[in-house]
Amino acid sequence: MNTVIIDHALLLAAILFCIGLLGVLVRRNIILMLISMEVMLNATGLAFIAAGSYWGQADGQIMFIAVVTLGAAEVAVGLGLTLLLFKRYNSVDVDNLKQLRG
Amino acid sequence: MTIEELIALVPLLVVASISVILMLVVSFVRHHRLISLITLAGFIAAGIMVFQSMGQPAIQITPLIILDDFSRFFIVMTCFASVPAVLLAYDYLRRSEDLKEEYYMLLSLAVLGAVVLAASNHFASFFIGVELLSVSLFAMVGYMVHGEHKRVSTLEASIKYMILSGVSSSFLLFGVALIYLNFGVLTFEGIQQKILNGTLNGYGMMGIAMLLIGVGFKLSWVPFHMWTPDVYEGAPVPVTAFLATISKVIVFALGLRFLHESGALGLFNVQAALAFIGVLSMLVGNGLALMQDNLKRLLAYSSIAHFGYLIIALIAASSASATNKALAMEAVGFYLVAYVVTTWVAFGALSALSQPEHGIEAENLKDYRGLFWQRPWLAAIFSVALLSLAGVPLTAGFIAKFYVFAAGASYTLWFLLGILIISSAIGLYYYLKVIMEMCKPAEDENDFQKAAIPFENKLILLVMTAFVLYLGISPQALIESLNSAIKVLM
Amino acid sequence: MLVLWLIVVLFVGGVLAGLAERVHAAASRWVTLATLVVSAILLWPLACAQPQAFESVAGQSGWLAVLQWEWIPRFGITFLLAVDGISVLLIALTIFLGFIALLSAWEEIQTRVGFFYFNFLWTLAGVVGIFAALDLFLFFIFWEIMLIPMFFIIVIWGHEDRYYAALKFFIYTQASSLLLLLSMIALVFLNWQQSGEISFSWFDLLGTKTEGVFGLLLMLGFFVAFLVKLPGVPVHNWLPDAHTQAPTPGSVILAGILLKTGAYGLLRFIVPLFPEAALAFTPYALIIAVVSVLYAAKMAFAQNDMKRLIAYSSISHMGFVTLGVFSWNALALQGTLLQMIAHGLSSAGLFAMAGAIQHRLHTRALSEMGGMWSQAPRMAAIAMFFAIAALGLPGLGNFVGEFLVLLGSFQMHPIAAILAALGMILAPVYALYLLQKSFLGEQSDTFSAHSASLFEFKAREVLMMGLLIFGLILMGFFPRLLTEYSDVALNSLQALGWGP
Amino acid sequence: MLNLLWLVPFFPFLGFVLLVSTSGKMPKPWTTMIGAGSIGLAALTTALIAYEFLSQDMTSFQLHLWTWMEAGNFAPGFSLYLDGLALSMLFVITGVGFLIHIYASGYMYDDEDFPRFFTYTNLFVAAMVMLVLADNLVLLFLGWEGVGLCSFLLIGFWYKDPANGLAARKAFVVTRVGDTAFAIGLFLLYKHVGTLDIQEAMIKAKLLWTEDNATASLICALLLGGAVGKSAQLPLQTWLPDAMAGPTPVSALIHAATMVTAGVYLIARNHELFLLSPDMMYAVAVVGVLTLLMSGFTALTQSDLKRVLAYSTISQIGYMFLALGVGAWSSAIFHLMTHAFFKALLFLTAGTIILSLHHEQNIFKMGGLVKRLPLPCILFFIGCLGLIAVPPTSGFWSKEQILNATWESSTGGPLIWLGAVLGAFMTALYTTRMFCIVFLGPSNGDVHEPKGFKFVAPLVVLAFLALVGGVFVETAWQLPLSNVFPGGHAPHPPTVIVVIAIATPFLGIAISYLFYGKRVFSAEKFANSALMKPLKTFFDSGWAMDWFYDLLLVKPYQWLAKINKKDCVNLLPDASSAAAKILHAALSMTQNGQLRLYVGVMGTAALFVIFVVVFL
Predict the structure, then answer these.
(1) How far apart are CA D432 and CA C269, in angstroms?
(2) Which of C115, C140, C174 is closest, CB to CB, to B428?
């Protein structure tokens, strides 16, 4: 019974992870990319919680908190950069960023 | 936590406190030199403290932090290698218009992340360290976005780095989660026992794979290397240098510790994946660098290749024979040290010719035309760096390559060594191309080569060049300290 | 200790010569001259050493000036310098050609003089190091060290295609030397497994058992590196470019000395360290040798660029070295050594000649020369001499070398010797062609503008050429002056390989 | 006195060194003094040594100067070895050489490169003397190559004409082919007998091999290869006619009297080896007879005076080879000496004629010179008599011996003899033809006969030798040679054979005279007849050997050189650098700066790595 649940939880986490990755991949809007990234991070958080519950330990949840913190930090920096991006290009389209290449 | 543990932890605390102190100071007085001196003092103090404690028994401080000779070695290296980062940044910021002081906070946080990484043998500290380092770097890469002569590309580099790094962190974390699911422990050593017990299943394997992806991104192994050239090029020189040296080296050291302590290195599939990544890194890195005219990108590609070379030593570290294993680990250590000092020389020279006050960096090959005749010593020093990167004798890079050869040979990795030889030959082309450019007669007056080199920059160049040559001529001292550092892992 | 001083003097002299430019532009030359004189003086006691001064190292007799310092104990690497008769001769050749190259550089090098002589002396130091180093690691270090200054010499003072040539030169040699490094390390590890001691010393590695495919591969690593430097077909392509593009003193050093390091490597390492593998490989090595001799001779004939022609002739001549080494009997070995030295002198002379002509005509194209004899009979006679030396005329050094190699190799491998002897037919074809196109025939327009007095050799050049000519004639008639040195060393070396 | 043997090569060498070191700055008389004087001194020394040698009834004398090279057991010395054979050669070289030098000092006097000429010839004499005095084959090879070099230098003496350069190179390379065979022969000899010292090797060879040994035959064949190269015998004779591009004294000295006979000397010197191989003896005889026939036919068609003489030289050396092949060793050397006399005379006289006619060499533009150049005519006539072997000139004595020996020898026989007699007939034919065309008939053009001691004295001496030298050698010189060569009874073939041999030349003279002297028959008509014309062209081209070699060797080699001028091996580095550049171009397309591509690559790569780790 346990294993089935853990597999399901993991499957969900994996699906979320892939959705997030696809989001980063297909979106051009940097804000949506950041959101997709958050989805990926939260997928990992889900996986941690599932694993923690599987082992009956608190470690998984502690890690989840750390993950959430990271997400916040990244988004904080990310939004700051988004502002600058918008200031410079009057758009939040990351496809504007193609100066560095070769 | 005992008092001994606390004392042992002091260097880490010192590094951690730098950013706090800086914040406090800045709120009272914005004094660039003072700020930089505080940062410098903090790094040096922490470095000296750890250096003093080398050779003492290992101390496990909470499950998260371990201070053994291996971590001490890399902490010392981080602290001392951060000194030029401060000096270079001081020089660079002094000449640019942006806010200066906050940079040092970011830098000290990044160094803290690196120090934590070096001392981590638990996934939680691993994760915290990596992210501390990365998130600070996002901001550092995009630091110079203000001012009249700002570098427009910093923003682009920063965003690219942030997004890609975020994705890679997700992989890394998902991997950790899967590993945790498989084994139920988060310490490296705990995993080893589980693997030996045969509890490894598909989740664990997938976890290790995703961990490799995360680490591979930080080390810009091919095929996770895409960010490297863009970020190297876009970031200001001091940040690029930091990114190229400390952030990579520490992640590699941690990767070695993880792969070794967890026993994952012994898994055939992991070795196969590493070998595959190694071959790709060597060939693609050098292939991309081949006709590159932008020096920062060139160094980025070359670093990709160098971390590909290191994979050979990494795989060789899985050897069952203790002597060969020690050899391979020394090889890794030596290579990292050599790479750091050499890269500092290279970026020091790059910075010496840059003009941040105009938002210009000497990154184009043509900026170096005739440098030998305008500034012979600078050109000579830069050549030493390039030759060291190319692995020519009497430089640290040669001994490092020699070590990799030895490690590879001891583990009979002939195929990988063959690729190493081929890609080294390709690599020679672009290193020599730069040297040749410096030898060509100067066409017209080159402003880049006229400006005086600041004292800090000279200091970095001289000291690091001395190191490169010293390690190339007399490597025994470093070998011995490495030998004692890796004993704890055996 | 003397050898160490010799190397140190050259290194320090190089630095001083580099700095001397700041005092006076000409000062570098004189510092270089002084350095060479000092090193010649330092070499003197070695050259005069009596047999009783010979030491025996690890069962190998005939060694002089043995010096062994700890260096990197982690790998059993020591700073091991020792010379035997072979090394002394080659070091003497190096210093001698140093003088020659200095004379040829005297007027040709007018820009960045200090840096030139710095590179010049460092190359020589590296080469002396190669001939003296008996620790494989140290050998490798010197092996690489000499490349960099040579690279600079080509890049900075070379001719029109210098960048391409320099890159090719460096990449060829460096890539192959990585193979050498890998093989060295593998050999050391093999020895480590067998003896329990890790050591890079040549003496310690002699006893390593290197049978089987693995031994063959190790030997190939060494062989390829040396073959590239030698060079032998099919890895010779760097040489025509490098020689052609290098400035005259650069070509002189390249042809005269640098190629000899490859030959020395073949002599010192291949058969002694890998007797079985070398024996198994002999047929292929012989093919390479013969093809080098014939193919390069053919290529030489096809060239219009004077220096390229000479460069190919060098390849052809060095094919005899491969042939000699893989014959490994007393005759062939002695011949190999003599061939190395004689070729050093004759090719130095030819390149100095080509350089002198280019200096005057600003072209190396044979099609634009012709009939220079009437303008410059002295020059022509000297050119004639070297062309004749190159085609192996008896009475000159090259003949002794070639003849002994062929005679020796015929005892072991008659077919290969016969085929290589066909080189005797092809050599005059290109050598006389060279002569015909440059000095004989009708006078070309290119140099009718030059007055005879400007064209003819000056005293400095006559001195330079005279020294070389003297050396070649001396070798041709009294080769025993040299073989007396190398006898002991070659005999003990020969004992390490397979017997006849 | 004998210990001063080294002076013989030393004097010419000293002359060479003196002339080189002054690089032509000396006044001309001094140059003459040194150039010709050194040879004179050498000749004098030779005479003194010969006196002592003969008066003491020595068979051989060895002088060790120094050990040349040393490796293992191989230690050839720089040693001189004198015996009857060497002494005979020395006389020819220094004696005839001296006369030619005197002549040359007049002939070349007006040349701007007068000193250079003597530089080369002195070196030549030194090398030639070393060749004959060498006591080992390596030293012999030194002289052998040395004379080849000087031959090259002197053929191309007038370097401004590229044709001369070509002829010189041809001479060097073609003889070098033979030299290479020679060298390989040495290697083989050393491999089996372990020494290259001639006397020692001969003794060992006799102990080692019985008659008809294959190895011995092979060595002989290789030595023969060297000999045919140097002596311009089939199939390597093509260089000699072209070698006439050199100054005429050179043709006399090198390409008639001395160097080209080195091959004869080589075989004679190693006769003990050849005696072990009757097959090779036979081969030598066949080579000789074929060469003499071939060149006889060719000489008949030539129009250049010197080329006629060149082919006659080839033909006469063919006789010497024949003599060697049939074991008539002394006769071969005998003929070598007499040939040196009359051929040097012919060449030098031809030189005078050519000089008189302003360097005109075409015999058809001469004619009627008998009245205008009486003295040269007489001298040339004497030379022709010697060449035709009219009794009792010197040529008669030696040729008769050879023909007689051929008849009787086991390696000769009637067929070979017939060829030789036919050759004698041809010799008479073309010699008479040449003489008639040059001296008889209508005269055209004016002449300027060079006068003076230098032009006359050497010729007179040579004419004397050509006339009576044969008798002297036949009688007085048998002893020294018989010490060298195995003795045997003098050949006595049937009288009719002897008579035929003696009579044939007269028949030749008569026919030729009818054609060219009296012009009873028209030579032109005969030559232009449908049957003869292609044959004439064929003979004229030297039996198309040049064409054949050109097609077989020279053209392919040039073609090979031309198509591969850029060195096809270069493809290797070029292709790898191109591949690296393509790799770079392909890879840099991935670095297009698009963030989303980077993420995509990363995602795909992640899948791949996971696949490798988990499922592999």
Answers:
(1) 70
(2) C174
Residue-range domain boundaries for chain A: 2-95
- Cβ separation A99–B152 shorter than 8 A: yes
Phi, psi torsion values for D234, nearest 5 degrees: -55, 140
DSSP bridge pairs for B66: B60
Q: Measured between CB atoms, which of A21, A78, A97 is closest to B156? A: A97
Assess C247–D contact: CB distance below 8 Å, yes or no. no
Mutate: best of B213, B228, B430, partner D, most D CBs <10 A:
B213
* Of D591, D592, D600, Cβ closest to residue A25: D600
Whether the model clears a pTM of 0.90, i.e. scores above it, the answer is yes
| Neighboring chains of A (3 or more beta-carbon pairs < 8 A) | B, D
Q: Which residues pair with D63 in a beta bridge?
A: D80
Residue D13: strand, helix, or coil? helix
Same domain, D399 and D447: yes
Among D141, D173, D567, the residue with its CB nearest the CB of C428 is D173
Amino acid at the residue C18 = G
Q: Which residue segment(s) compose the domain that D583 sits in?
A: 549-615
Q: Indicate yes or no: CB of C479 within 8 angstroms of CB of D569.
A: no
Q: From the CB of residue D297, how many other CB atoms can be counted at a distance below 10 Å?
A: 23
Same-domain pairing of D437 and D519: yes
Q: B224: distance to nearest CA of chain D, Å?
A: 6
| Averaged pLDDT of chain B | 90
Q: Which residue of C has its CA nearest to D71?
A: C331
ipTM: 0.90
pLDDT digits (tens, 9 = 90+) for B277-307: 999 999 999 999 998 999 999 999 999 999 9
- In the structure, how many helices (H) and strands (E) does chain A have? 3, 0
CA distance C278 to C325: 10
Helix (H, G, I), strand (E, B) or coil at C498: coil
Note whether A77 and A61 are within 8 A (CB).
Answer: no
Task: Give the pLDDT confidence score for residue D465 in this predicted structure.
Answer: 85
What is the arrangement of strands in the sheet containing C60-72, beginning at the earlier edge strand? Answer: C55-57, C60-72, C77-83
B212 contact residues in D (CB cutoff 8 A): 609, 613
* Pairwise CB contact (< 8 Å): C432 & D172: yes
pLDDT tens for residues C64-76?
A: 878 888 898 888 9
Same domain, D510 and D468: yes
Query: What would the pLDDT profile of C409-452 be if each residue is shown by its tens digit?
Result: 998 899 999 999 998 888 988 998 888 888 887 777 666 656 65
Interface of C with D in 383-412 (CB under 8 A): 384, 388, 393-395, 399-400, 403-404, 406-408, 410-411
Domain ranges of chain C: 2-494
Kindly calculate the radius of gyration of chain A based on its CA atoms and give it in whole angstroms.
Answer: 17
CATH architecture of residue range(s) A2-95: Orthogonal Bundle (1.10)
Residue with tokens 């037919």: C425
Identify the chains in contact with C, defined as 3+ C-beta pairs within 8 A: B, D
pLDDT tens string D138-177: 999 999 999 999 999 988 888 888 888 888 888 898 899 9
Chain B residues in contact with C155 by the CB 8 A cut-off are 435-436, 439
State the smallest CA–CA distance between residue B295 and chain D in angstroms: 15
Instruction: Tell me: do D489 and D607 sit in the same domain.
Output: no
What token pair was written down for B454? 């600041």
Distances (CA, A) of C143 to B226, C131, C338, D534: 37, 10, 22, 67
CA gap B48, B45 in Å, rounded:
5
* Number of structural domains found in chain D: 2
Checking if the pLDDT of B444 tops 80, the result is no
* Domain stop point among D540, D560, D587: D540
CA–CA separation, B350 vs B344, rounded Å?
10
Decide if C477 touches D, using CB distance below 8 A: yes
Residues D512 and D596 in one domain: no
Coil, strand, or helix at residue D65?
strand
